[in-house]
Amino acid sequence: MARSLAVISAVMACAFAQQALADAAHPVVALLPGVTDPFYFTMHRGAEKAAKEENVELLFQVPKAWNTTEQVPILKAIIAKHPDVLLVSPVDKQQLIGPLKEAYDAGIKVITVDTYIGDGKYQTGKGDADFPLSYIASDNLEGGRVAARALAKAVGDKGTVYVENTKPGISSTDARADGFIDEMKKHPNVKVLETQYNEDDANKAAAHVAAVLARNPDLAGIFAVNTFSGTGVAQGVKSAGKTGAVKVVVFDAVPGIDRDLKAGVVDIAIAQRPDDIGYYGVKFAADAIRGKKIPTYKGTDFVILDKNNVDQPDIHAHIYSN
Length: 322
Hints:
This protein has eleven helices and 13 strands. The longest helix is centred in the N-terminal third of the chain and has 17 residues, at 38-54. 43% of the residues lie in helices and 18% in strands. The protein has helices at residues 2-17, 38-54, 68-81, 97-105, 140-154, 171-184, 202-215, 227-239, 257-263, 274-289, 313-316; strands at residues 28-32, 57-60, 85-88, 109-113, 134-138, 159-165, 190-192, 196-197, 219-224, 247-251, 268-271, 297-300, 303-305. It is of the alpha/beta class. Strands 6, 7, 8, 9, 10, 11 and 13 form a seven-stranded mixed β-sheet that branches.
């Protein structure tokens, strides 16, 4: 899968390198995701669908890693091409304020997708991060609560659990962890251990599982907040011989999640709707270009997958693809 993603990313980079000429008759929208990930390739397909409907040219390039070092240079290249609208998944809610303000100051309309800057509340006239027109994403706080309720049920409403997170400062994953921890307060017989951070490295997430199990052999469950965390946790539980004994709830439905659910390595997967995020992103961008007012926030739904429903066509369709 890694080789396939690398090839796709390279192709997209070549397409992005072509000069974009934005004008009223041929509007240009740039989509800058956070990292090479099936989630964002699925988002791109939704954006492509809307771009065809709206007769919009769509630029797309994916950073190779989730950090400002990778994302900011691509952002600066986008600013130089001057598209009409930038759809962006900021990799840090504070560190990307300045770089995105440069795009705004250059006359490029900004819409954030999946993640946000500041507090995600835009067009308020307050603070230094309210200049984006809109934020389109899952309700990640509620997603964390959904995960907590699912894991509490899976562990029989008692035992020790923990959150496997990527890194602090990312709006989406911070909110999922916060929602999970807050919801678990309603389950007094479930103890939540200290959150582990893996920096989007599945191998580190797997190592965390081993280390936490060594300290807490009675570990009952794990909530993995994103793609890489989920991949690593599933592998860590399997390697420890704890499949079925340690319940796993993962956020995102990556390719192969159906196999993991049916094998019992993962108990619950919470699928976002990245295609909808990309689709509404381009639709909102097209409206903004044409002078229409757009909502400052658009929430998208979740789909809950488990071994009993994952083969149903309407559920299986929500697994992300490369």
